[in-house]
Amino acid sequence: MKALSLIFAVLTLLSAPDLAAAFETRARAIHVIDMSTGQTLLSKEADTPLPPASMSKLMTLNMLFEALKDGRVTMDTTFRVSRKAAAMGGSTMFLREGERVAVRDLIPGIIVNSGNDACVTVAEGLAGTEENFARLMNERARAIGLENSSFVNASGWPDPGQRMSMRDLVTLARRLITEFPEYYPYFSVRKFTYKGRAPANARNRNPLLWIDGLGADGLKTGHTQEAGYGLVGSARQGERRIIFAMTGLPSARARAEEGERILSWGFRQFLLKDILAPDTPLAEIDVALGTAPVVPVGVREKLRLLVPATVREKIAVRIRHKAPLVAPLRKGDVVGTLIVEIPGLEPVSRPLVALEDVPEGGLLVRLGAAARILLQRALEAAG
Q1: What is the SS3 assignment for 217?
Q2: What is the mean pLDDT of the chain?
Q3: Residue 114 annotated in active site
Q4: CA distance linking residue 34 with residue 21, whole number of Å
Q5: How far is the C-alpha of 383 from the C-alpha of 256, rounded, in Å?
Q6: Residue 365: its pLDDT value, please?
Q7: Is the dihedral angle over the CA atoms 279, 281, 283, 288 positive or is it negative?
Q8: Average pLDDT of 229-244?
Q9: Confidence (pLDDT) at 4
Q10: Residue 363 — very low, low, confident or very high, per pLDDT cuts 50/70/90?
C-alpha cells in the first residue's frame, strides 16, 4: 500500500484527553451516543443485562408501532381490557375490565402514564396472551440487534427473566426515532389522562421534557426498588441528537440531575468536524491481475465526526485491508476498513472503497502475475 503524499496519516484538530473517562457518572450503568455520527460518547457496564423496569415498555411500543406500520392494526383499532390488565398494580392509566380502548389512547397511556394495564392490554390485543407476546418480543429483540435483552412480560414488572442492557436500550431508542417518525412525537407529550381519570397521574415522568431549551423529546423513565431510577433520554440541538440510557440512580431527583448533566456535557464538550471529503484518495492499494497495478481508496460519503472541544491532540487514521486486491474492481467496491482514533472516544470505523474501476487484465497480465508468483515461491524455497 502506498500512502499518497497529499493525504495525511494523522489529522491535527482541536481535541482533548479522555473526556469520557473524566465524566464521572452516578449511574450504575450508562450508554451515551451521538446519533448524527454514531459515536459513543460515554459507556459504563453498557452490555450488562440489568432490570429495566418501565424502560422495557419501549419494546412493547416497538411491537405496537410495527403492527401499525404493517397495517395489522390502525390508530382506531380497539383492544378489550381483560381482568388481568385491569388488575395490574403500579403505574396505570386506570383502565376498567371489559371496556375497549383505542390504540391512539393506549400509546400515550404507556408513554405518559407508564400504564402497566395499557401494556398488558396491548400484549393481549396483539398476541392473545402476555406470555405469547413476550415470546414474540424476544424473537424481535434478536432480529433487531438487541443482544443482551430478555422479556417475560410487556410492562417491565419485576422478574428475574426481565433484563436489558443500556446499549440495547439505546439501540431500541434509535430505532423508535428513525423507523417510526410519525409516532415518535408521542414521547414528548407532557400530560395525558384517559377520560379524565386520575389527573394526578397525568404528568409525564421524564424530567427532561420540562426543561426549556434542552431540546429533549423522549423517551421513557423506569423505577423499581431492584433497578433504582433509570431513564432512556434523547434530545436534539441543531444538527445533533444525543441518545442515552442509564440506570441505578438513587432517586428521581438524581435521575433528573444526571440526565441534564449528560446532555449539557454531550452538546457542549464536543464539536462536529468534517474529517474527510468523499472520493478523496487516502492511499493506493496494490491490485493483482488488473489493468492497473494499484487502485486509489477512500470513503464513499463525507466523514463528519465529533471531537472533544479543548486541547490540541492528534487523530490517527488507519487503513485495514486484504493485500493484494484482485481485479476486477468497480468504483465503490468495499475493499477494507477505515479506522479513525480520536483521543477520549471509541474508535470509529467506516467502509473503505475503491475510487476507480480496475478491469481484469488480459492474458499477458495474468501470465506475468503467474510468473512472478512462481519466481517468488522458488526464491522462498531456495532460501
Answers
A1: strand
A2: 90
A3: yes
A4: 16
A5: 70
A6: 54
A7: positive
A8: 97
A9: 42
A10: low
Write a three-state SS string for 299-364.
CCCCEEEEEECCCEEEEEEEEEECCCEECCECCCCEEEEEEEECCCCCCEEEEEEECCCECECCHH
Is 351 buried (19+), middle (13-18) or exposed (0-12) by CB count in 10 A? middle
Mean pLDDT of 356-376: 67
Same-fold call for 2-13+274-382 versus 22-268: no
CA separation for the pair 214, 293 (Å, rounded):
54
Q: Which of 54, 56, 82, 165 is catalytic?
A: 54
Q: 160 Cβ partners below 8 Å, 6+ apart?
A: none
Confidence at residue 326, expressed as pLDDT on a 0 to 100 scale: 87
The pLDDT tens digits of the residues spanning 133-148 come to 999 999 999 999 999 9
DSSP secondary structure letter of residue 86? H
Q: Which of 57, 91, 155, 220 is catalytic?
A: 57
Which sequence spans correspond to the domains of the chain? 2-13+274-382, 22-268
Q: What's the fold here for domain 2-13+274-382?
A: Peptidoglycan synthesis regulatory factor (PBP3), Domain 2 (2.60.410)
**Closest to 262 measured CA to CA, from 25, 86, 6:** 25
Residue 14 pLDDT grade (very low, low, confident, very high; cuts 50, 70, 90): very low
Q: Are 95 and 85 in contact (CB under 8 A)?
A: yes
State residue 373's pLDDT score. Answer: 55
Is the per-residue pLDDT at 10 higher than 50?
no
Closest CA relative to residue 288, chosen from 373, 377, 375: 373
CATH number for region 22-268 = 3.40.710.10
Does the annotation mark 57 as catalytic? yes
Specify whether the CB–CB gap between 151 and 137 falls below 8 A: yes
Q: How many CB atoms lie within 10 A of CB 104?
A: 14
Q: Detail the DSSP E strand segments found in the chain.
A: 2-3, 10-14, 29-34, 40-44, 78-80, 100-102, 216-224, 228-237, 240-249, 270-276, 283-288, 294-298, 303-308, 312-321, 325-326, 334-341, 348-354
- Taking residues 22-46, what's their average pLDDT? 94
